[in-house]
Specification:
heterodimer, A: about 425 residues, alpha/beta, 7-stranded beta/alpha barrel, five-stranded parallel β-sheet, three-stranded parallel β-sheet, 18 helices, B: about 425 residues, Rossmann fold, seven-stranded parallel β-sheet, six-stranded parallel β-sheet, 15 strands
Chain lengths: ~425, ~425
């Protein structure tokens, strides 16, 4: 260990970097061959009782998760001066909240106004654009920055890509763009002997630092908390604090990255997740050597201990930690390929509604619903899909793509229909 | 022979009068339109109507209770109180849902197809009591046991009409042994057998060892008048496909159940091959079935997912318009006793490509034929038609003349002759 690093550890407190991801997609309704070229409404499912109805899902999650969790975060910020949290909130979520839950946006604004809640940058549409079109990707990052500035009055300085997808070239882009930090999965096969509880530097970058998710401690909450088959169930704040303290004995950081909806939606209120979390924050901070960091503070407080390279894309999903849940089968590849092939024609039209529809179709959830790798991870996908099957998801989506082509052709006299 | 004038409705446009020729026929069927799941009901409807027009009095038994407002040319008897939907729930006439249950329980419990069959047979036994029929005409395996019982009780000649065998329905698999046994017994006991195609006759002879001279081939026909119901093509139903046609695309279609018997996997592969040579083609797959997901995945694997349009199950206008929007209709069946949809497609101005394994290909000449597995040949035929308007138009116009000559009246005449002289009475009960 270098002298700098030793110094950084001794000077800084041991900290938890809690980062929560807030997102809802605009789910595609059951859009049939008979809608194609006739009805250009793709996202507004009229049946109020299905999970394809975006308003219904938003209201449900707001009730179960956004409102109670934000109330808890406000309380923790008021009670513990050292408590901090980082959030990434997608543009598609913000659009939905503006329509169906403006009070939830207001509560996020109050969190940000404490100065101890940092907003993390990402693509506005929670898309896989980085892997298809660098230009479109940058436009979406900037659209998100604009939206965050407009609503919260803050600048973002740390980047995370959709589903925590990450590789060396993404880090190099983020470095050149001017981000000071970037988030990724701390996946054992890549880390090898190294620990996720330090700050690293991506290869061929100048200023950017890499924060890695401690997936064991993160997933204890996100996936295992309420699992009665788990040998550690029930997880108490006492036990979890003990694990956290042990983890951080010779390292500066624990990066807990997870979906915001872990609190209240993935782990329901009756599992005790809220009480657990409140209790844990108190216990953690009762040790004067411990603190919480925002992602920027974690980077400021800790110099990189070394270089870490991830040439292939790593995500935070599934046992494989790759993109196969989104782009693993040929339906997903076909659907995304056809969508991104329309980029130039769509953007040239300057038709705001058409461009917005095209971008909303880039949200990675659409591809996720077409996932067919049922076996080890199948349950998770099935749980999150509002469609009868991945094949249905694919058919509706392809019909929508055809309708985009139709609008291009009919209204803007560009592109051709294809069949 | 007593003659009286009987008014007949349901002929599409106007009312007919017919003479009662005194021929009393017990017709045993499983479905009639609009409560049908497939071609069996359509064939029974038109055959019965043509027979009625020629003077026969028909008692037609169905296994469900429902109104048939469109039928007044014969007496319809409901063997159970089940709704048609409940009967569909039992799997229409597929034997996949066939479960052997204990006899005796059937009158209360009609939860499986075997119980419905037994109930149906019991109903027929009571119906024929004290009645005198000139012939018993039983359609397909579900009614065959009842036909055999009616023959035992009345000693009237039994005619078994085979629209499909269990070998066809199983699509190359073994099929259900109970269904096989029922078919075998009834075909043995029947006085005469009607097969809807030479293919079907060959199966009956080779698989069930029924003497060939006991079997008559009577191809189905099409009642063109039944299509003259004020239907007009709506080019907005498949608006995107119409857009493609404006761009010079050729629309290929299949209107069918997505089961292995229909050979759709070969069709999708052929479209992929054709697409390599000529890409202004699209495939409309109208229907639904257990193979759907497999076909979607196959199309994506072959990189032609956006060439294929899946409609889901279609009825009414969407069904008619599927034929109308299409240029080329393909019947890709691995095993198709007849294949009425090919005639419907021809009526809606399609060029036809049919497998040699489809019965309907025996009665048409102005068509392309191929063996169901011959993907290369099918791809050639598709490209050939898609790239030549002259060829496409020749096929369309000529096949229209051919199908128009297929008449249910001719089929009914043959049946009438058979009723009058069913001998030799092989297997009659003493």
């Amino acid at each position: 260990m270098s002298e700098d690093v030793t110094k950084a550890i001794t000077e800084a407190k041991r900290g938890i970097t809690l980062y929560l991801h807030v997102h809802q997609p605009h789910r595609v309704r059951e859009y049939s061959v008979f809608d194609t070229a006739i009805d250009h409404n793709y996202f507004n499912e009229s049946d109020p009782l299905t999970d394809r109805n975006n308003q219904r899902v938003f209201n449900k999650v707001a009730e179960k998760s956004y409102r109670p969790m934000n109330a808890l975060l406000e309380k923790l910020l008021a009670t513990h001066p050292a408590f901090k949290v980082s959030l990434s909130i997608t543009g598609t979520w913000l659009e939905q909240a503006e329509q169906w839950g403006p009070d939830v946006i207001e509560s996020f604004k109050r969190l940000v106004q404490t100065g101890r809640v940092e907003i993390v940058s990402e693509t506005y549409y929670h898309s896989l654009a980085f892997f298809y079109s660098r230009e479109e990707f940058v436009r979406q990052v900037e659209a998100h920055k604009d939206k965050i500035r407009e609503l919260f009055g803050v600048e973002t300085s740390v980047f995370r890509n959709t589903e925590l997808s990450y590789n060396d070239s993404l880090a190099q882009w983020a470095d050149e763009y001017g981000f000071k930090g970037i988030l990724a999965e701390g996946w054992d096969p890549i880390l090898d002997w190294r620990s996720p509880n330090f700050v690293y530097k991506p290869p061929q970058t100048k200023n950017i630092s890499l924060l890695l998710k401690n997936y064991k401690l993160s997933d204890d909450l996100a996936f295992r908390f309420s699992n009665k088959e788990w040998q550690e169930w029930p997880l108490t704040a006492d036990k979890y604090t003990e694990w956290a303290n042990a983890t951080i004995e010779d390292a500066p950081l624990i990066n807990l990255f997870m979906d915001y909806e872990t609190f209240g939606e993935h782990q329901w209120q009756d599992t005790g997740i809220f009480e657990f979390f409140e209790d844990f924050v108190g216990r953690w901070l009762s040790n004067p050597d411990n603190t919480f960091y925002t992602v920027s503070e974690a980077i400021d407080a800790n110099e990189p201990v070394g270089e870490l390279s991830m040439p292939s894309t790593v995500t935070w999903a599934d046992a494989e930690r790759d993109l196969t849940a989104w782009l693993g089968n040929s339906m997903q590849q076909e659907a995304m390929g056809h969508l991104y092939a329309l980029e130039k024609d769509i953007l040239r039209t300057n038709d705001a509604a058409l461009i917005s529809d095209w971008r909303n179709l880039q949200t990675s959830d659409h591809a996720y619903y077409m996932c067919t790798k049922w076996f080890s991870d199948g349950d998770v996908h099935a749980y999150f899909s509002p469609y009868e099957s991945p094949y249905d998801a694919f058919l509706y989506y392809m019909n929508v793509i055809r309708d985009l082509r139709w609008r291009l052709h009919e209204t803007h006299k560009t592109g051709g229909l294809r069949g | 022979m007593t003659e009286k004038r009987v008014k007949i409705k349901g002929s599409g446009q106007r009312n007919f009068f017919r003479y009662d020729n005194g021929m009393n026929i017990l017709m045993l069927g499983w479905e009639l339109p609009p409560h049908n799941s497939g071609g069996l009901g359509v064939a029974c409807y038109h055959l019965s109507k043509a027979l009625a027009l020629q003077g026969a009095s028909i008692d037609f038994v169905v296994p469900y209770s429902a109104k048939h407002d469109n039928i007044d040319y014969m007496k319809i008897h409901s063997a159970t109180k089940l709704s048609p939907i409940e009967r569909y729930g039992l799997g229409a006439y597929d034997s996949n849902f066939l479960i052997e249950t204990q006899p005796g329980a059937e009158t209360e419990n009609l939860k499986d197809i075997r119980s419905v069959q037994r109930h149906y047979t019991k109903f027929v036994e009571e119906l024929v009591d004290g009645k005198d029929f000139d012939a018993i005409h039983a359609h397909d395996w579900l009614t065959m046991e009842a036909g055999v019982r009616a023959k035992e009780l009345t000693n009237a000649p039994l005619i078994v009409h085979v629209h499909s065998t269990e070998f066809d329905r199983a699509g190359g698999n073994q099929g259900n042994p109970i269904a096989h046994e029922i078919e075998y017994q009834a075909l043995m006991i029947a006085d005469r057998v009607i097969a809807v195609s030479q293919i079907t006759k060959d199966i009956i002879v080779s698989k069930y060892n029924i003497p060939a001279d006991k079997i008559d081939v009577m191809h189905n026909a099409i009642d063109v008048e039944s299509f003259n119901d004020g239907y007009a093509y709506d080019n907005r139903t498949y608006k995107y496909l119409e857009g493609l046609k404006d761009e010079g695309y050729t629309i290929i279609s299949a209107v069918t159940r997505f089961t292995i018997q229909k050979g759709l996997e070969y069709l999708v592969r052929a479209v992929a091959k054709a697409n390599e040579r000529y890409d202004r083609i699209a495939l409309l797959l109208a229907g639904d079935g257990e193979q759907r997901d497999e076909l979607i995945a196959l199309a994506a694997d072959l990189g032609i997912a956006d060439k294929i349009f899946f409609t889901g199950f279609v009825r009414g206008k969407q069904w008619r318009d599927a034929y109308s929007v299409s240029d080329i209709f393909v019947m890709s069946s691995v095993s198709e006793p007849f294949g009425l949809t090919a005639l419907e497609a021809a009526h809606h101005d399609n060029a036809l490509i049919l497998t040699n394994q489809s019965g309907v290909s025996e009665v048409l000449n102005s068509i392309f034929k191929y063996d169901f597995w011959d993907v290369d040949r099918l791809a050639d035929q598709i490209v050939g038609i898609a790239t030549s308007d002259a060829l496409k138009n020749e096929l369309r116009q000529n096949v229209m003349r051919e199908y128009a000559m297929l008449s249910w009246n001719d089929v009914a005449k043959k049946c009438m002759n058979m009723y009058a002289a069913p001998l030799p009475r092989i297997g009659a009960f003493a």
